[in-house]
């Protein structure tokens, strides 16, 4: 335990702390345009939670608006560009594979929306086969 206390004291009382804290800022100053792109991607991606929260508060129930999926796709794409630039395979895979889910949710949303309006895709089911869709279970308002 004494070693831990000595280590913590060393970190907070020497220039070692400054070295730890200044490293990300040094990286940012090397290539501020790409770092700004990374921050933008994360900001858009985070913004989707604000959209979802506001929509849920307005409806007084949990909803996932279609804007959530668009912001997920856009924020993920911008962050993917940054991940490719910095060469981080973990993030490249995470943001490229998650886009499949976002696109699929948008496809589901627009198929359901089209059917609700009484329109059917040319290759879709006959008009009588379209399932009843009510607004009570709608989660993508």
How do the helices and strands line up, and which of them pair or pack?
Elements lengths: L1 H12 L1 H16 L1 H28 L6 H21 L2 H28 L25
Helix pairs in contact: 2-3, 3-4, 4-5
Dominant shape: elongated
How many separate domains? 2
Q: Please give the alpha-carbon distance between the first and last residues.
A: 55 Å
Determine Rg (CA atoms, Å): 23 Å
Q: Major β-sheet, in short? A: none
Count of runs of 4 or more consecutive helical residues = 5
Q: Tell me which oligomeric state these chains represent.
A: single chain
Which structural category do the helix and sheet elements fall into?
A: mainly alpha
The percentage helix is: over 70%
SSE sequence, one letter per element:
HHHHH
Strand content: under 5%
| Secondary structure tally: strands | 0
Average pLDDT taken over every residue: 78
Q: Give the uncertain stretches in residue-range form.
A: 120-138
């Amino acid at each position: 335990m004494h070693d831990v206390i000595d280590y913590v004291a060393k970190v907070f009382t020497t220039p070692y702390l400054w070295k730890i804290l200044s490293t990300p800022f040094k990286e940012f100053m090397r290539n501020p345009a790409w770092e700004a792109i990374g921050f933008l991607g994360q900001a858009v991606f985070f913004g989707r939670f604000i959209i979802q929260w506001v929509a849920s508060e307005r409806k007084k129930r949990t909803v996932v608006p279609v804007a959530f999926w668009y912001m997920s796709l856009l924020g993920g794409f911008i962050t993917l560009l940054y991940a490719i630039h910095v060469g981080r395979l973990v993030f490249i895979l995470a943001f490229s594979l998650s886009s499949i889910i976002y696109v699929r949710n948008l496809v589901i949303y627009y198929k359901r929306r089209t059917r609700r309006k009484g329109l059917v895709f040319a290759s879709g089911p006959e008009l009588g086969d379209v399932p009843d869709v009510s607004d009570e279970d709608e989660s993508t308002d």
